[in-house]
Amino acid sequence: MTDLPDDNEKNGLGIPVRFTHLYMTWLIILAILLTLGQVLTQSRIRSIQEALLVIRHAALQRHQSQQIVKQALLLADPSEQDRFAENVAELRRLFPIFEKYHLQSRVGNISNPKVRITNSDTVQRLYAGIRPQFEAFQQSNRRLMRLQRPDEIKQPDVQASLRLLLANEKPFLEKMDGIVVEYNTELRNKLNVMQSVEFYLYLFTGLVLIGIGWLIFRPAAQKLKQAFEQLIEAESQTTAANKKLLSANKSLKETRQKLFDATKQQYEQQIDEQKIRTSYLIAGQEEERKRLSRELHDGLGQMLTAIKLQIEGLEAGLTRAASEQNTGITYSANLRTLKSLVTQTIQETRTISNNLMPSVLSDFGVVPAIKMLADHDRSETMDVTFKTNLATNGPRLDKNIEIMLYRVTQEAVSNAVRHANPTHITIELKERRNSLQLVISDDGMGFQMPEKKQLSEQLQSVQELNNLFNRVDTSRPPSQGLQNIQERTKLVNGKFKINSRPGKGTKLQISIPYQTRFAQYDTY
Fold first, then answer.
1. I need a surface site. Which of 164, 184, 235, 301 has the fewest CB within 10 A?
2. Pairing mode, strands 424-432 and 383-388
């Protein structure tokens, strides 16, 4: 076998390659020997089987010849005259079989089963020696098979055929015994040859196996022993290195965990601080709205009402003076216009005051407040409906929750009216298990939602989603509505979700972990 390059010798690759080549060579040799032995054995066995079939045919001829002689004697027996026809028929059946077996065995060609062998010279000489007796059998039986009546048995030629048959019976049996013995002798010789071949094949196969063990497995065992020793040594070194690595890894994990805990604590602290600041800011906004609402209602509203009353009194006086003197008609018309403007100003002031802090929210709760908001925004061109499973006279929600739900609804409806041009807005406030769910949907213009990956990135900056939501009016600055909604939702640990498709409207969902309970209320 050829050697491998030096670089393979240096890095240890040549040894396993040569070992594999040598091992495969010996295995191929062994496979070839086993195949040859199997082919030879099968051939010998098939030859022996064929010889056994020929021996069987030869042995059957002895038995058949005796049956033929028996049937011939029955034909000559006076007591069997009643069965004469049956005996002739049996003779006619037996002799063709006997004749066929003998002729086929003589040439070594048996038809059923189909077997063909070559008789040895000795067997051929024995068959040549038995031919006169066989021909005598043929001549006698052919005459006897032509008998038609029992009285024909007394004819001289028939009696001569019987004597010829009986005279050749014993010589035929003796010579057939010699043929069978010769067949058996040749078969034993074949078995001895096959036994010798099998022994030498076994001996050679054993030598091949010993060669494989000595030339392959013994060096391989030595190499494996050396490899195991090197592996054990490497394992001890690796174990020591692993211990150091585990110690360093443990220290690294502890340091990383401490860093993670510190970062998490700092982040949570920042989130809490942000929530507190945002909560204070929203609370301040609500307080400022409440103050502005009170001042508009109690201060400016009352002054405008007083001005309206004064104008109405002045209008009445001028009307009377005009009726008495037929003058002041122009002044009366101007006063009516002034009164109308003051009335509109009072109504607008009340609307602003109600939007800043609706009294129904502080007096009756979020459900009536949202219902009033829906009724206020309903018009001839837009239908706003409100559905809830919370009873109007049921337990009040927490003050901050009610303000959050109302402001989110107010902001979402306002955005839909200003930007989506809907014809129908549905507001749903439901309690499910341990959460409150607020769903606001419209059939407006909608907008194209970003992909999930883009949406997760853009939700970090709600301002970008607001830009998408307010795409209709690009001339005005982007709305802070969605950002306010998300911030308010975060303050109560809620979840914010929005779905929209162009031409299919927009659906905003907010879920707040909350369990309805009675709450103590102060005035807003």
1. 235
2. parallel
Cβ proximity of 511 and 457 under 8 Å = no
Ramachandran assignment for 384, one of left (phi > 0), alpha (psi -120 to 50 degrees), beta (any other): beta
| Nearest residue to 64 (alpha-carbon basis) of 104, 106, 93, 107 | 93
φ and ψ at residue 242, rounded to 5 degrees = -65, -40
What angle in degrees, to the nearest 10, is found between the helix axes of 329-356 and 218-294? 150
Angle ∠(213,217,223) on CA atoms, nearest 5: 155
Query: Does residue 44 contact residue 198 with C-beta atoms inside 8 Å?
Result: no
Q: Helices in 365-492 by DSSP H: which ranges?
A: 366-377, 399-415, 452-458, 462-469, 481-491
Q: Closest Cα to residue 415, out of 512, 505, 349?
A: 505
Q: Where are the domains of the chain?
A: 6-233, 363-524
Rounded CA-CA distance 462/480 in Å is 9
Residue-by-residue DSSP string for 9-43: HHHT-HHHHHHHHHHHHHHHHHHHHHHHHHHHHHH
Is there a contact between 486 and 422 (Cβ–Cβ < 8 Å)? no
Query: CA-CA distance, 510 to 500, in Å (whole number)?
Result: 15
CATH class of the structural domain 363-524? alpha beta
Is 123 within 8 Å of 183 (Cβ atoms)?
Answer: yes
User: Which residue type, as a one-letter code, is found at position 341?
Assistant: L
Decide: 466 and 479 in contact? Cβ < 8 Å.
yes
Give the Cβ contact number of residue 136 at 10 Å. 18
Give the pLDDT confidence of 59-109 residue by residue, as tens digits: 888 888 888 888 888 888 888 888 888 888 888 898 898 888 888 888 877
Beta bridge partners of 384: 425
Asked whether the CA dihedral 387, 388, 389, 395 is positive or negative, the reply is negative
pLDDT digits (tens, 9 = 90+) for 298-337: 556 666 676 777 777 766 766 776 666 655 455 566 667 7
Cα 141 from Cα 72, distance rounded (Å): 8
Are 143 and 29 within 8 A, CB to CB? no
